[in-house]
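Class, look over these C-alpha cells:
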Amino acid sequence: MENIIVFGNSDFTKLTSIYLEQKYNICAYTVNSDFISTTNFLSKPLIDFEKIEKHYPANKYKMFISLGYTKRNTLRERIYNEAKNKGYTCISYIHPTCTISPDVKIGENVFMFERVIIQPFTKLGNNILVQSSASICHDSIINDNVFIGSNACINGFVTICANSFIGANATIRDHITIAEKSLVGAGVVINENTEKNNVYKALMPDILGK
C-alpha cells in the first residue's frame, strides 16, 4: 500500500477515509493550524498543514484533499493548489463498483463513490468529486474542481466548467455547456447552456393550487 496524508478532519473526511483505507495506508491527517484543537484524528496524528512537509515529505508521501463543495469547491481548489506547490502528488480513488471506459482520462485528487458510470471519450480534470450512481456519458469534459451529486445524469458532449456544482438527480441534456461556478440544484433539468455564477433551482409544484 502507498503511504498517504489526508487533508481534512471533518465528517466528510471520516467518510472518505473508510474508502481510502481499502487501498492506501493513511499515515496522518493535516489541516491548517487554526482548525487544530487536538493532536489526533481517527487515531492518527493530526499535523499543521503549514509544516506538513517537515514531518511527511512529498518525496515519500502522497496526499488526498478530503474537502467537499464549500464555496463552490473553491476551498478544495485552494488547498489542492497549496499541496501541489509543496510538491505533493495527489492520489485519486475510484470505487471498484464503478464502470469506467478504459480510454477515459482522469486527473489527480478525483474521488468516485459506488457505481459511477463513465462512457468512452470522456475526460475528467483534477480535484473532482463524483457521488454514487452518477452517469457521465460519452465525449463529455468535466473540468477541475467540480462536484457531481448522486444519480446525476450528464449526457453526451457536455462540458462542465471549473468549480461547478451538479446536485443529486440533476439531468444535463446533450451538447450543453455548464459555465464556470454554476450551481445546478437537486433534480434540475438543464436544457440550455448556463451562465457563469448562476444558480439553477427546480421549480416547486403549487400543491395548494394558488
Notes: The chain has two domains: 2-85, 92-198.
